[in-house]
Amino acid sequence: MLSYEKIPKMSPEFIQEYLQKLGTQWTGQGVAIELGSWLGGTAVPLLEGLIEAGYDRPFYSFDRWTANKAEVEKAKKQGVRVKEGQNLLPLFLENATTIYPNIKPWRGVILDTIKEYPGDPIEICVFDAPKTEPTFTEALRVLLPHFIPNVTILGLLDYHFYQMHKGNRRERFMAPVRFMENYSDHFSRIKDWKRKKPLYIYSHVFFRYKKELKI
Ligand SMILES: C[S@@+](CC[C@H](N)C(=O)[O-])C[C@H]1O[C@@H](n2cnc3c(N)ncnc32)[C@H](O)[C@@H]1O
């Protein structure tokens, strides 16, 4: 059994498998970074692939790591008991450092913590927290200068999620779609599960950063 199968997750298995494979394709040109790691359900499979490829850099991870009601329920359904308000960083670290010790976590609101990104070139970047404004554009404003043209992969989890909503909520979740449409010359879509059903789990898209973008 792969080690990540024991970790509570919010993403479907096919994404875990895809991230694991993506990790194995690491070329040594930059770090891997994830915004929205929760308990490690996506970070750990990615790390497993990276390790296979010889990854020797820090793994940067950003999250609030404070359990809310929905997270308490999701963890409970997957056999892990946490309390509302609990600091989840120790649990994430326990899951992630078991397989890879060099994890650099930033706990707090991404709008603030992202400013502390140390500036290593980025090869793999997974967004599973910035899905609305102002966080989405602010995170990219900080990280884009460290993307490598024709190399960096940007994974936007829940990209098509807006289609499940109406009104203001739909508008809010369209932030990533608007951004990628505005700057479509700078990215190519390498993986999109859109056509599969049900949409709420098959809604992730991965892009390759093609040419320099300054925002
Ligand atoms: C969808 S979950 C991540 C799940 C994980 N990637 C997985 O598949 O198992 C999103 C995570 O991002 C965090 N998050 C959401 N918005 C955030 C923000 N603005 N700042 C910091 N963390 C945030 C939540 O606390 C949660 O842990």
Question: Any overview of this molecule?
Answer:
The chain is an alpha/beta fold and 215 residues long. It has a single domain (3-209), classed as 3-Layer(aba) Sandwich (Rossmann fold). It has helices at residues 13-24, 43-52, 69-77, 89-97, 110-113, 135-143, 167-173, 175-182, and strands at residues 31-35, 59-63, 103-107, 122-127, 153-156, 187-192, 205-209. Helix 1 packs parallel to helix 2 (43-52). It is globular. The structure holds S-adenosylmethionine. S-adenosylmethionine binds next to loops.
Largest sheet: 7 strands, mixed
Q: Which strand order does the major sheet show?
A: 3-2-1-4-5-7-6
CATH class: Alpha Beta
Which kinds of small molecule does this entry bind, naming each only once?
S-adenosylmethionine
What is the count of helical runs?
8
| Count of structural domains | 1
- CATH fold field value: Rossmann fold
- The residue fraction in helices comes out at 25-40%
Please report the total strand number as a whole number.
7
Report the average pLDDT across residues.
Answer: 96
User: Any idea what the CATH superfamily is called?
Assistant: Vaccinia Virus protein VP39
- Low-pLDDT runs: none
* Strand-pairing-aware structural class: alpha/beta
> What is the second-level CATH architecture?
3-Layer(aba) Sandwich
Element pattern in H and E: HEHEHHEHEHEHHEE
Beta-strand percentage range:
15-25%
Q: What spatial form do the alpha-carbon principal axes imply?
A: globular
Computed CA radius of gyration, to the nearest angstrom? 16 Å
The separation of the N and C termini measures 43 Å
